[in-house]
Design brief:
- This protein folds into five domains: 190 residues, Hypothetical protein af1432 (Orthogonal Bundle); 141 residues, Beta Polymerase, domain 2 (2-Layer Sandwich); 120 residues, Ubiquitin-like (UB roll) (Roll); 168 residues, no CATH class; 76 residues, 2-Layer Sandwich (Alpha-Beta Plaits), CATH 3.30.70.
- By secondary structure, the chain is of the alpha+beta class.
- Strand 14 and strand 15 form a beta hairpin.
- The strands form six sheets. Strands 1, 2, 3, 4, 5 and 6 form a six-stranded mixed beta sheet that branches.
- Helix 8 packs antiparallel against helix 9, helix 20 packs antiparallel against helix 23 and helix 23 crosses helix 26.
Length: 760
């Protein structure tokens, strides 16, 4: 990424940085409006680099000449302000130049080759990553926004400076949003709260995260913000005495323990107070931890020493201690948290951390641009960097498996959830997962192959369902099997974007493979009716390959595979495609075979099995669906309807719903048969009339179990039971013979009055 080391220019510790005037706790509240003001913040760059920044400023100034912001200011003031925020993070010269020119391609018609020629490829790549896709045509605004966001995140996964510049851009826009129309303010503020603030939190930029949240809250709910701000100001005045007293007592206790610390106050933001009030459905008075203290120490061991001093001073509240040093948060945050009871009975939170931890807590990934080592020469915030890199890598994984922009955005939003649980592998490795994550999420976090082949899980040594939510501290073990595959129902319980995208990708791949095989079978069957055999799929046979390519082009698909998938999914009718292919083959000199032609046409008679009929064995879960109106099982006479885009739907031969579809669209019906060997059981519906009384359900369940069948669903209706009741059972059986055994077993039950199979 071209990260430049400033270690030689900086004093080693964050404390010395503060003494030199660099406040790691706050971004500047005011932004530069001219290059002269900006240059005052570029003292960490060399003279040659400042000269490069000046050239970029001149270029951007000329490009934006005559453009004005909604407030009436010259547009160039915005890029200068963004560059000023980036300078506060001490970003390198390429990032500062990109900040100055981040809107040049989007708003001024500047091309990427021009930027490469003037400022080099790295800077041009940064600017390109920050440029939205407004010039392309999308069907909806949401689709365009999703695709632009996807582009930016992928650029960010290659170079994290992209998102740092983008967050600086968004922060300045949010600070200067007053001149915008109300509808646009609301839309941008909502987008900020949903996406950009969580990204800042995910990357450890807590100061940016808090300010973006507060600004978004102020723009979306201005009156609520005003009311809460006034209440907070009043509380600040009312509690000033207790805050001052606690501070003095804490400082006195540390002085007595001869522990050198820096004590500073901390106040919750209005948005965090508002969110807590909404979550707990309480008023402002119930939020009792508005104020807190931060204890900065010199050494890691001093954190635990400071904790002991505080617990000797005030009583700790049970269950309110968290050790984020031993187990860091997902964004690399490290600190000890404890909540104590003050002399007046109010709860006060204390956070203990080292200077290096504090820098990472406030700046996250941006801390690596400011200084790279702590006072002992150790790598600063390596955990934050590692965890941030893991999340960025997960974006690439999701992108590889998700082609739809809105789906990609959905996965990323899931992964931006700030709350996390921390679980252990059997080898004591810690994994951070979103709140509500399941063993399936855990399995995919280890490796996609582990997730794909998961069959069971153990939590703390006990077997649990795969949908069980995990808790912090759980030891999770997943059990895999070579033949296992993802279940579509997993999508209802997983919480991570990675797991969701992996499952969807697998199911889509499986659906495509099954659809391709089904489409090939159907096209071969239809072509045999024309007396011809399907051309070879071998690309080395040029004549056959050219024939497939021509057919795909005429059919409006990209190739043979896509054409067969469309046939398998019912988007194209096999008979029509076969006639077109037969015509092309005849034109190329292929002659119909008389025997095949006779057999093919003989097979179209309803009384005779069609040659090349589609066989149903239960394995094609995604491309062959058993109709829920009649629920066919092996032994039933069946027919196949090729629905548009939904694959092959199997009906019983006497199904009235199926007959109506046949009368309306007869060309989409196929001859299907049950295979001799079946790979699974099948569901069918049965009505059981029972005499109402104690233990009736137990009798029914026992009768079904004795016949070696399963009840997959039971419906008793909404009417109150009188002397009798009707139970609708979904039974999982092997075939009609097995169903007959189940019904005989049910009739022998004392409480059962009548049993019959449900038909449409």
């Amino acid at each position: 990424m071209g990260i430049r080391s400033f270690a030689a220019e900086l004093l080693p510790s964050a404390l010395n940085l503060r003494l030199r005037g660099l406040d790691v706790d706050a971004l500047p509240a005011t932004s530069p409006t001219s290059f002269a003001e900006l240059s005052e913040r570029l003292g960490y760059l060399s003279k040659a680099e400042v000269k490069q920044v000046r050239e970029a400023f001149k270029f951007a100034d000329e490009a934006h000449l005559g453009q004005f912001r909604a407030s009436g200011e010259p547009y160039i003031t915005h890029p200068v302000a963004v560059a000023g925020l980036c300078a506060a993070w001490r970003m390198d010269v390429q990032a500062i130049m990109a900040a100055l020119m981040h809107d040049a391609m989007e708003d001024c018609g500047i091309t990427k080759p021009e930027l490469i020629e003037r400022f080099g490829a790295p800077t041009a790549d940064l600017v390109d990553g920050l440029t939205k896709l407004d010039k392309l045509q999308f069907s909806t605004r949401e689709e365009g926004q999703a695709e632009s966001f996807r582009k930016m995140l992928l650029a960010m996964s290659r170079d994290v400076r992209v998102i740092l510049v983008k967050l600086a851009d968004r922060l300045h826009n949010m600070r200067t949003m007053d001149a915008m129309l109300p509808a646009k303010r609301q839309r941008i503020a909502r987008e900020t709260l949903d996406i950009y603030a969580p990204i800042a939190h995910r990357l450890g930029l807590n100061q940016v995260y808090r300010e973006l949240q507060d600004l978004g809250f102020k723009l979306i709910h201005p009156w609520r913000h005003v009311v809460l701000s006034k209440a907070l100001e009043k509380a600040r005045g009312n509690r000033r005495d207790i805050v001052d007293r606690v501070r003095k007592e804490v400082e006195k206790a540390f002085a007595a323990a001869k522990l050198k610390v820096e004590v500073s106050g901390r106040e919750k933001t209005t948005y965090s107070i508002y969110r807590k009030m909404r979550e707990k459905h309480d008023g402002f008075a119930s939020v009792n931890d508005i104020f807190g203290f931060r204890i900065i120490v010199q050494e890691l061991r001093d954190c635990y020493w400071a904790l002991g001093v505080l617990h000797q001073l005030y009583k700790p509240m049970p269950g309110r201690f968290k050790d984020y040093i031993a187990i860091p948060k997902a964004n690399g945050y490290q600190s000890l948290h404890t909540t104590l009871v003050s002399p007046l009975g109010t709860a006060v939170e204390f956070q203990m951390r080292t200077e290096a931890m504090h820098a990472v807590a406030e700046k996250g990934i941006a801390a690596h641009w400011m200084y790279k080592t702590d006072a002992k020469g150790r790598a600063l915030g390596s955990d934050a960097q590692k965890l941030g890199t893991l999340w960025l890598q997960s974006l690439i994984d999701i992108q590889d498996e998700t082609r739809d922009s809105n789906e990609f955005l959905e996965h990323v939003k899931i992964d931006l959830t700030p709350e996390a649980v921390y679980v252990f592998t059997p080898k004591s490795k810690i994994l951070a997962l979103p709140w509500g994550a399941t063993p399936i999420d855990f399995a995919y976090a280890i490796h996609s192959d582990v997730g794909d082949h998961t069959v069971a899980a153990k939590v703390n040594g006990d077997a649990v369902p795969l949908r069980t939510p995990l808790n912090s501290g759980d030891v999770v073990e997943v059990i895999t099997a070579p033949g296992a595959k993802p279940n579509p129902s997993w999508l209802n319980s997983v919480r991570t974007g990675r797991a969701r995208s992996k499952i969807r990708h697998y199911l889509k791949t499986m659906e495509a493979e099954e659809s391709r095989a089904l489409g090939e079978q159907m096209l071969a069957q239809a072509l045999r009716a024309e007396g011809l055999q399907l051309p070879s799929a071998d690309p080395s046979e040029t004549a056959a390959a050219a024939l497939w390519q021509q057919l795909a082009r005429i059919s409006g698909t990209r190739g043979r595979g896509d054409l067969l998938i469309d046939i398998g999914l019912g988007r194209k009718v096999a008979v029509i495609v076969a006639k077109r292919l037969a015509q092309m083959m005849v034109e190329h000199g292929t002659r119909p075979d008389a025997v095949a032609l006779t057999l093919g046409r003989f097979g179209t008679d309803d009384s005779t099995p069609m040659q090349g009929a589609v066989f149903i064995d239960g394995s094609h879960d995604t491309t062959m669906n058993l109709a829920t109106c009649c629920r066919p099982i092996p032994g039933d006479g069946i027919v196949g309807y090729l629905g548009r885009g939904e694959g092959l739907v199997i009906h019983t031969a006497e199904c009235r719903v199926g007959r109506k579809l046949h009368d309306r669209d007869s060309e989409r019906w196929l001859h299907v048969e049950w295979a001799e060997e079946l790979v699974r059981t099948f569901e069918t519906a049965v009505m059981v009339q029972v005499a109402n009384g104690k233990g009736v359900l137990a009798q029914v369940a026992q009768a079904v179990a004795q016949a070696e069948a399963d009840i997959t669903h039971l419906d008793m209706g909404e009417e109150r039971a009188t002397d009798s009741a009707d139970l609708r059972l979904l039974l999982s059986v092997r075939d009609r013979v097995h169903l007959a055994d189940v019904m005989r077993s049910l009739r022998r039950a004392h409480a059962v009055m009548k049993v019959w199979r449900v038909k449409p």
